[in-house]
Amino acid sequence: MILKQEILAALERSPDAPLSGQALAQQFGVSRSAVWKAVNALKREGYEISSATNRGYRLEKDSDRLSADRLAADLGETLPVRVFRSLDSTNNEAKRLLAGGMRCPFLVAAEEQTGGRGRSGHAFYSPAGAGLYMSLAMAPGAALTEALRITAYAAVCTAQAIEILTGRSCGIKWVNDLYLDGKKVCGILTEAITDFESGGVDAVVIGIGVNLHPAEVPAELREIVGFLDAPPVKNKLAAEITRRLLRFDARQTEFVAEYRRRSTVLGKKVQFESDGRTAEGVAAEIDDSGALLVQTADGRTAVLRSGTVRVTENGAE
Q1: pLDDT at 282 over 90
Q2: Dist. CA 119–CA 101, nearest whole Å
Q3: Rounded distance between C-alpha atoms, residue 292 and residue 283, angstroms
Q4: If 0-12 CB within 10 Å is exposed, 13-18 middle and 19+ buried, where does residue 274 land?
Q5: Chain center to CA of 29
Q6: Contacts (Cβ under 8 Å, ≥6 apart) of 276
Q7: What's CA 181's distance to the chain center, in Å?
Q8: What is the C-alpha separation between 103 and 9, in angstroms, rounded?
Q9: SS3 194
Q10: What's the rounded Cα separation, in Å, for the pair 247 and 189?
Q11: 158 φ, ψ to 5°?
Q12: Are 245 and 206 a contacting pair, CB within 8 Å?
């Protein structure tokens, strides 16, 4: 790892206590001048680092920037990483790279999305600097029917990574949204690239958007969108999520217990669409495939494998 990335990592590990140039020089076996040059290089890349005589350097809380070198170092994997200041969508970029012949797995991340997408074509608000926007392209060796399970697995991986790095425990609203204090802080969009002849999945692109830092929100989203208000963890979070996702095994179901534990809909009355009609019932179970089982008033069990549900009691979402 080059010196500036080592210094950045040290500053990230010490968000509240400034680190002196002398201490950094001794830690990395370089001169104070080399430390000063490395800090200035980081500033030129957009990192906000404060410095004061006799106090040292400190990474400002709102200076959480993606770095391909830093992310790769945190990841500790021989995994291609592409980092962008701005993209239309990290999922779109991942699919463009796949179409161009890039092989899985690889990671795409951006500071901003101008056309971030959620399920059913809904826009995903992705302002510059406020969140982690990433897509992992992988070849899970699974059938298309496994896509729902991959999405549920991604929700668990992301929730666990957030809790490890920020201490915040998020609930999962079926099928793929993470909530904190009644507001959405993360959305996940899984897209499969299929082989129509075999019915298998050539690649899966898992897009994840996490709202890390408070930002101005359009009026129509203020009651919906929330932020983790996290310390500078963007690179570490991307790496932690990626490591967990790469462990996916199409045969495993153990993670479903954690998915159920974090569910914000189980046991509650929900509204959903079935066969083009709106229906209601009680969210009774999540099966091992990730499908939501809803008991309707007429005694039927609706098995939902896609779509959106809305909680109608105990805190509507």
Answers
A1: yes
A2: 26
A3: 7
A4: middle
A5: 36
A6: none
A7: 18
A8: 29
A9: strand
A10: 18
A11: -70, -45
A12: yes
Nearest to 106 by CA among 36, 37, 9, 206: 206
Burial 71-82 (b: 16+ CB within 10 A, else e): bbbbbeeebbbb
Amino acid sitting at position 178 = L
Angle formed by the axes of helices 21-28 and 3-13, nearest 10°: 120
Q: In angstroms, rounded to a whole number, what is the distance separating the alpha carbons of residues 234 and 245?
A: 17
DSSP string, 15-60: SSS-B-HHHHHHHHT--HHHHHHHHHHHHHTT--EEEETTTEEEE-
**Residue 175 near residue 151, CB atoms below 8 Å:** yes
Position 14, amino acid: S
pLDDT digits (tens, 9 = 90+) for 189-201: 999 887 666 666 7
At 206, which helix (H) or strand (E)? strand 201-211
Side by side, which strands form the sheet with 301-304?
301-304, 292-296, 277-286, 269-274, 309-311
> pLDDT tens digits for 243-254?
999 999 878 889
User: Which pair of structure tokens corresponds to residue 120?
Assistant: 């059913």
Alpha-carbon span 199 to 113, nearest angstrom:
32
Q: Which region holds residue 296: left if phi is over 0, alpha if psi is between -120 and 50, else beta?
A: beta
